[in-house]
Amino acid sequence: xxxxxxxxxxxxxxxxxxxxxxxxxxxxxxxxxxxxxxxxxxxxxxxxxxxxxxxxxxxxxxxxxxxxxxxxxxxxxxxxxxxxxxxxxxxxxxxxxxxxxxxxxxxxxxxxxxxxxxxxxxxxxxxxxxxxxxxxxxxxxxxxxxxxxxxxxxxxxxxxxxxxxxxxxxxxxxxxxxxxxxxxxxxxxxxxxxxxxxxxxxxxxxxxxxxxxxxxxxxxxxxxxxxxxxxxxxxxxxxxxxxxxxxxxxxxxxxxxxxxxxxxxxxxxxxxxxxxxxxxxxxxxxxxxxxxxxxxxx
Amino acid sequence: xxxxxxxxxxxxxxxxxxxxxxxxxxxxxxxxxxxxxxxxxxxxxxxxxxxxxxxxxxxxxxxxxxxxxxxxxxxxxxxxxxxxxxxxxxxxxxxxxxxxxxxxxxxxxxxxxxxxxxxxxxxxxxxxxxxxxxxxxxxxxxxxxxxxxxxxxxxxxxxxxxxxxxxxxxxxxxxxxxxxxxxxxxxxxxxxxxxxxxxxxxxxxxxxxxxxxxxxxxxxxxxxxxxxxxxxxxxxxxxxxxxxxxxxxxxxxxxxxxxxxxxxxxxxxxxxxxxxxxxxxxxxxxxxxxxxxxxxxx
Lengths: 298, 298
Hints:
Chain A is α/β, with parallel strands linked by helices. Helices cover 38% and strands 24% of the residues of chain A. Chain A has a nine-stranded mixed sheet, sandwiched between helices. Chain A is globular, with a radius of gyration of 18 Å.
């Protein structure tokens, strides 16, 4: 079973107190695809400019990721520059250049359209709707952000009616529902459509609410967080990837999926950009799943 | 096996967006004792004024708590007034009246002195040292706070050399070690003395570091947090209470203890003051332990 992801492919410049990564591979769809490719065939739908380095294309291809839907058009690739503080939970966005992403309208090639699983990355809800109208997916996950919640709530709510799972940050639960309490906020989101609500809390792990059940997966306590950029997107990739590989969405699979998401996110934090994520294999994932099990076993 | 706790017994006035509790029973030693009394005999060492209501004394006695070491002296009981915001993680201290607590020097009666387990509540480290000099405990836990870290670090470090477990908030790990990273901070604290470091993260659960192992226990996701005052002290009471009842401190017992701590903390949050904590029984604790197990099982 394959999974389609639609979202940004970017060149990120990241500064931390410990180093700087200049114009490295980034973007939500990138992290998602590299994470999910450990589990299943991934169709990446996005857009890059003429300046997008060939080595990144080769990386996607080496992972078996289908990039037929990654348009390459004249102009510059989406660029983002951010700086992390010594407390890596604090991040400043220094610059965002949408570039070719500004006129992006996702077009799904045959393979992407037919995938049974679909993830709508954090793009304008009107674009997410365009994707839904092309796709034949039977299970749809979605990410969003404060910007769309505050500027395009009606369109977002229309899309939410049609998705199975939402994977968002804890602060966005408050933005979307007004609730300070995550249990109440998740319940309010479920009433908007998604039967599965996964709330990412960064270093504090994630909570998943579905059909009367609550599941908690911690984040792996890491002594060194080199660069958390893309951790949330890697989570989504591990989550959706596991579901697609198992081709099931019962509670047991969803719980495992949340752990796999946390596993992939933990790898991403260990190096700049997707450098660590790009080098892991099934054995590394299995070992780390075991570490998560030991972390919570009593 | 019994456990001795030394710390504050107070009258708390708590305001939340949902209600107000005027001069209710409070204080770290109170919450600890009521939590730990579910597991073992507790010796409470503290001080109250002549105004301390008889019904609170009766509550302690009804739980089998030994209050021989709770001095009653002329004057007013320690009072604290605080206000929680709609986001209950934000708390303002409106007033602190030390009153009889200002001149407190703990005196341990025979029973308290002979207890095998001892918990040094959040009092000045010089007083914690005075307790250590009287006690015959074989296993010592300790709480502290930013105030002592910033004003009495030498005395605190001297005490830390002599304790087995420290149970503190995540922000205090940073205050004590300068580390933003909890893994590194906990390691630095272990080098100061305690072999067991339990980091409380409020609604985000707790991390326990000991002898090369890391354990994570979530907080129970509650739809209604009525009053989180005393949750951390209840955690310590459940943690030390379980250890004392089992009379063991191996990893398996410590992991269970951290879950019992989280269980007791969750009850405390459900009502003002120790109202819910005071009414639970072994069956309620066992049921909630099971809920914690289901929360993390995959």
